[in-house]
Amino acid sequence: MSRNEIAAVNRQFEEAARKGDLDRLASLYTVDAMALPPDAPVARGREDIKRMWGSIAQQIGLKDVRLDTLDLEEAGDTACEVGEATLTLSSGTAVVKFVVVWKKVDGQWRLHRDIWNTKAA
Amino acid sequence: MSRNEIAAVNRQFEEAARKGDLDRLASLYTVDAMALPPDAPVARGREDIKRMWGSIAQQIGLKDVRLDTLDLEEAGDTACEVGEATLTLSSGTAVVKFVVVWKKVDGQWRLHRDIWNTKAA
After folding, report:
1. Would you call A38 helix, strand, or coil by DSSP?
2. Complex ipTM, two decimals?
3. Which strand (E) or helix (H) includes residue A35?
């Protein structure tokens, strides 16, 4: 159940990233979410996370994202996902590893903590 | 309660890192833990995580670690920590951001998911 619901939000995330819809992307996070991109400070809350994604998308020329869940553990209204994201960039393809802590708020799963790093040097 | 217990394990982590005690360090993780170091694949389980820390410690000349908790949310037998680690290296100092998902196993808090990345470019 939760597994399917979280997968559905990941598909929404991919679609928003592909379309460059930063408002939609930010809305998939909790209002008090924290995102931790490499080489940058922590982004807190939807406005900050929206700015972060705008900046990242522009910087790397983000065209497409595919999210693959490697592991998902649920505990009540929270869940912890470990996965890989394959990014299509203007310069080619990059793969990053991530941990997302999900939180169910008002019946909807949202990204609550989001951190990633590069897979290979 | 949990907050203090987790802080105590962080102090044990710092001590093990300072002493280069890889067995102790690995024992602070759950048996099915996953660690996601930058520029490398996922390490799974204590043996793999022990190897990972041995490799990292040697590579960067790790002398000391200080862990600072920025945020800690608890949910039953799991907890999610966002923090910063200040590393003393042979070449100077580095600061990384991290997310640790903690799990209470047999009455003891252990690192269950551990991922970090650099703070500034």
Report:
1. coil
2. 0.95
3. strand A29-36
Q: Scan for tokens 């759950």, then name that residue.
A: B30
pLDDT digits (tens, 9 = 90+) for A31-90: 999 999 999 999 999 999 999 999 999 998 999 999 999 999 999 999 999 999 999 998
- Assess B55–A contact: CB distance below 8 Å, yes or no: no
Task: Give the count of alpha carbons within 13 A of A11, CB side only.
Answer: 6
Q: Secondary structure of A76-109 in the HEC alphabet? A: CCEEEEEEEEEEEECCEEEEEEEEEEEEEECCEE
Cα distance between residue A71 and residue A13, in whole Å: 18
Task: Give CA–CA dist B15/A28, Å, rounded.
Answer: 39
- Give the residues across from A31 on adjacent strands: none
Q: Is B115 close to A99, i.e. CB distance below 8 A?
A: yes
**Cβ B33 vs Cβ B108: under 8 Å:** no
Q: For residue B67, which of B89, B95, B43 has the smallest C-alpha distance? A: B95
Enclosing H/E stretch for A32: strand A29-36
Distance CA(B71)–CA(B82), nearest Å, equals 5
Distance CA B92, CA B85 (A): 14
Binary contact (B115, A115; C-beta < 8 A): yes
**Model pTM score:** 0.96
